[in-house]
Write a structure and sequence with these properties.
Layout (H helix, E strand, L loop, with lengths): L1 E10 L2 E11 L4 E5 L6 H8 L7 E6 L2 E2 L5 H6 L2 E4 L11 H8 L8 H11 L1 H5 L10 H13 L5 E5 L7 H18 L2 E6 L2 H7 L2 E6 L2 E7 H6 L1 H7 L6
Parallel strand pairs: 3-8, 3-9, 6-7, 7-8
Antiparallel strand pairs: 1-2, 1-4, 4-5, 9-10
Length: 237
């Protein structure tokens, strides 16, 4: 469904990715874990077309999308819930969800809205409320819901647990599992929270300084002593 081959990317003279190879099969949840500054967010942004790859390519459903404009990439079934959520703070919850559906078919809007509100009952209670007045967890729910409104085949999630309380983090990851299981959406998840990400994922990758250094099943990576020592402090949080 999504394949990254020999990808190099960066910002000006700063090279952030060095020959990255990653694949995400249809129906999978794949996690990319690594420390802050490893290049994880740059990878997601490059997949979305900004910044542009300086070498290598990105394939979505077998189609080379490496040089396409971002809005064309999104029309091909990719959706991105960015780091820091980046909701429209002055817009209501409903207006944010409408923005997520802007590239889609209006005929699907009502049904898609019902699905999102079923996943996120909190949002249903706050449809008229401004996005900026929501709690951090509610804003993360809104960011994911907004992405789902475009009916993606592949959902890119960038640090969905960032800055959230442990109870809310568990709830968010349970919802991501439900999106994959019940709606059949393929998920590529970038996370510093290695425990939750790898526990959820079918497969995982480890990134260090813009390079993939390790790959395996989520369970195998969780059990790996090196991973546990570096990212889990000897165990789960």
């Amino acid at each position: 469904m999504l394949r990254v081959e020999g990808l190099h990317s960066g910002y000006g003279r700063i090279q952030a990715l060095h020959g990255v190879d990653i694949s995400v099969a249809e129906g999978e949840i794949v996690a990319l874990v690594g420390a802050n500054g490893a290049g994880k967010t740059t990878l997601l942004m490059t997949i979305c077309g900004n910044p542009r790859a300086s070498a290598g390519r990105v394939l979505l459903g077998g189609e080379d999308i490496t040089t396409l404009p971002t809005h064309h990439i999104m029309r091909r079934g990719l959706a991105h819930s960015p780091e820091g959520r980046r909701i429209f703070a002055r817009m209501s919850v409903l207006e944010n969800l409408q923005m997520g559906a802007a590239l889609g078919d209006p005929a699907h809007f009502a049904g898609d809205l019902d699905k999102v509100l079923e996943l996120f009952p909190r949002l249903k209670e706050r449809l008229a409320q401004r996005g900026g007045t929501l709690s951090g967890g509610e804003q993360q729910m809104l960011a994911i819901g907004r992405a789902l409104m475009s009916r993606p085949k592949v959902l890119l999630l960038d640090e969905p647990s960032l800055g959230l309380a442990p109870l809310v983090v568990r709830q968010i990851f349970e919802i991501v599992a439900a999106i994959n299981r019940d709606q059949g959406v393929t998920v590529f998840l970038v996370e510093q929270n290695a425990f939750h990400a790898l526990k959820l994922a079918h497969r995982g990758y480890v990134m260090v300084n813009g390079r993939v250094t390790m790959t395996g099943s989520g369970a195998d990576l969780l059990a790996n002593p090196e991973i546990r020592a570096q990212y889990l402090d000897g165990g789960a949080p």
